[in-house]
Amino acid sequence: MAHGSFDSAQPDAVQRARRQTIRSAQADPELYAALDLGTNSCRMLIAAPDGGHFRVVDAFAKCVRLGAGLERTGHLSRSAIMRTIEALEVCAEKLARHGVANSRLVATEACRRARNGAHFLALAARETGLRLEVIEPEEEARLAVISCAPLVSSAAEQVLVFDIGGGSTELVWIDLSEVAPEDRPQAIVNLDLCDRGRIRPSVRSGARIVDFISVPLGVATLHDRYADVADDSARFALMSWFFEEQITGFAPYLEQNVPTGNGVFQMIGTSGTVTTVGAAYLGLRRYDRRKVDGMHLSVKAIDEVIARFLRLGPEGRRRDIGLGRDRCDLIMSGAAILQTLLRLWPTEMMRVADRGLREGMLFSMMSARGAFERVAPE
Known about the structure:
The longest helix is centred in the N-terminal third of the chain and has 21 residues, at 78-98. Helices cover 44% and strands 20% of the residues. By secondary structure, it is of the alpha/beta class. It has helices at 11-24, 70-73, 78-98, 109-113, 117-128, 137-148, 184-189, 219-225, 232-246, 251-254, 272-282, 289-292, 299-319, 324-328, 331-344, 357-368, and strands spanning 28-37, 41-50, 53-63, 100-107, 133-134, 158-164, 169-175, 208-215, 265-270, 296-298, 349-353. The protein folds into two domains: 11-135, Nucleotidyltransferase, domain 5, CATH 3.30.420.40; 139-358, Nucleotidyltransferase, domain 5 (2-Layer Sandwich).
């Protein structure tokens, strides 16, 4: 791609060669790819079925900050588009090299909201050969829930799955009280969310979605909204308050008798915020997914980590090796969302999920094609 222009002027030989490679690559029916282009990150997994799970063959993740400035301008910026297309070019090359036969490539909140979202998607298709599908919040939530199915406890009768993204946060409350304990993970896979947030009962599984909400606030958009507040603690408090204001229509927020005790309630969080807090609690200087994904994290531990981040202040967080440059500026907006949820629905323990849309897409595609029979609980 020509870095000084969006017109594909140098293109032609390079772009034709890349598209020809994508068309002519030997398709491997065993390989599946899932690409998630969010407000903050571009991430892709290429995997093959392996029993009731899948084996990752290749992966890509890049902080592209596609939605930088979106809250203020309503548009994707020129520099953000350039960064993102460069990342998508890497994804296109990986897909071609592996000859992936089955793929799903999706974009979420930034492309849903931006006035020039359609222009960006057309440009991305022309420059990289990748055609991204903009999915609705309901589908985004469904995929996140599917990815977390193996982490559902057989003892859980009420489950709150939340996904804190860059531009939006999805909450899904699920009632599993009518499902046999051994069938609860698979019941999660079979759940459906219908259009416009209305709930469709899952006849196949017996599970029931109590309510679903997509809040157009994530780590990037919430951070941008209060970027002009100088005091760190005041900004954190304002972000927490504002996020709570956006979920007042969520049915479990309105109901005072939602059971959250005695082991019947489980909270599962999937997001960079949650995994960062988990890694910080473990004291990891280098992130290790094997140690973080699926871990149980007490609310006391979460509060201690967030309090430490607040004590560090903006400069201290930038110097923190465990946070890294991509996460240090956004961790407090995510922490404000996380702590708000834990305050509203008290629980002693939360399950950490380093999984999300990509894993949900892979499970969904493989299951639809009969690659495995059921998701086994972990």
